[in-house]
C-alpha cells in the first residue's frame, strides 16, 4: 500500500479529503497499519525530502538484537544525506545528543571520524556497539586494497646484483 499510495500521490495534487477517504476505506477493511505511515504524501518540491525511509533507523537493529529501543533515533537516510552534504572524508562529525549514535555510526561508515555525547548509559553502550561494528567493517580490506598492496614476492627489478648480495 505505501508504494501504491506514493505512485498515486506523485501523479496527483495533494487532496486531504481524498486521502482521508482512502484511509477510511482501508480502516473499514482492517488494513490501515498502526506501526507505520501507509499514506505518506509525496512532495513535488526538491526542497522537501519525502523519500526518506522513516523506519530505517538503528531501532531496527535494536529490535533484532532484542535490546531496548531508543525513543527517537534519527532516520539513517537523513543522517547520510547531511553527512554527504556538510562534511568531507576525514572530517570529525559530532552529535551533542548521540542517542544510539546514529550520527557517529554513519560518519565512521562514510570515512569520517564520529563523536558524540549522550546522557543515557544504556543508549551510549548500545551506540558504542554500532560504532565499533562500523569501524571493524571499515578496517576490513577489500579485494581492491589487496590488488594495490605491494607484492611480497621480489620483482625482477629488486634482484639487482646489489640487492642479491
Ligand atoms: C532525540 S535523541 C537523539 C537520538 C540520536 N540522534 C540517534 O539517532 O539515536 C536525544 C538524546 O539526547 C540525550 N540528551 C539529552 N540531554 C543531553 C545532554 N545534556 N547531554 C547529552 N545527551 C543528552 C538523550 O538522552 C537522548 O538520547
In short:
The protein is mostly helical. It contains 8 helices and 2 strands. Helix 4 (76-86) crosses helix 5 (102-109) and helix 5 (102-109) runs parallel beside helix 6 (121-139).
Can you walk through the features of this model?
It is a single chain. This protein has 2 domains: 1-50, no CATH class; 52-149, Rossmann fold. Helix content is 47%, strand content 5%. It is mainly alpha-helical and 165 residues long. It has a two-stranded parallel ribbon. Strand 1 (92-95), helix 5 and strand 2 (113-116) form a beta-alpha-beta unit. It is built from 8 helices and 2 strands. The chain is elongated. The longest helix is centred in the C-terminal third of the chain and has 19 residues, at 121-139. Helix 4 (76-86) crosses helix 5. It binds S-adenosylmethionine. S-adenosylmethionine binds at residues 70, 72-74, 95, 97-100, 102-103, 117-120, 123.
Bound molecules: S-adenosylmethionine
Q: CATH-wise, what's the superfamily of the largest domain?
A: Vaccinia Virus protein VP39
Order of helices and strands: HHHHEHEHHH
The value of Rg in angstroms is 24 Å
Helix content: 40-55%
> What is the approximate shape?
elongated
- Structure annotation, total helices: 8
Beta content comes to under 5%
Whole-Å distance between the termini?
A: 75 Å
Query: How many strand segments?
Result: 2
CATH overall fold name of the largest domain? Rossmann fold
CATH architecture of the largest domain: 3-Layer(aba) Sandwich
Largest sheet: 2 strands, parallel
- What is the average of the pLDDT values? 90
- Tell me the domain tally: 2
Amino acid at each position: 500500500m505505501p508504494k501504491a499510495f506514493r505512485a498515486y500521490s506523485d501523479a496527483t495534487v495533494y487532496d486531504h479529503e481524498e486521502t482521508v477517504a482512502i484511509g477510511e476505506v482501508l480502516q473499514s477493511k482492517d488494513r490501515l497499519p498502526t506501526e507505520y505511515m501507509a499514506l505518506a504524501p509525496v512532495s513535488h518540491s526538491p526542497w522537501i525530502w519525502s523519500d526518506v525511509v522513516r523506519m530505517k533507523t538503528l531501532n531496527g537493529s535494536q529490535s533484532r538484537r532484542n535490546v531496548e529501543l531508543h525513543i527517537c533515533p534519527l532516520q539513517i537516510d537523513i543522517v547520510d544525506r547531511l553527512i554527504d552534504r556538510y562534511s568531507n572524508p576525514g572530517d570529525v562529525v559530532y552529535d551533542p545528543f548521540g542517542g544510539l549514535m546514529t550520527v557517529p555510526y554513519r560518519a565512521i561508515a562514510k570515512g569520517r571520524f564520529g563523536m558524540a555525547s549522550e546522557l543515557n548509559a544504556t543508549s551510549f553502550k548500545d551506540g558504542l556497539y554500532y560504532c565499533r561494528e562500523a569501524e571493524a567493517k571499515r578496517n576490513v580490506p577489500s579485494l581492491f586494497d589487496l590488488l594495490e598492496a605491494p607484492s611480497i614476492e621480489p620483482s625482477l627489478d629488486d634482484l639487482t646484483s646489489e640487492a642479491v648480495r
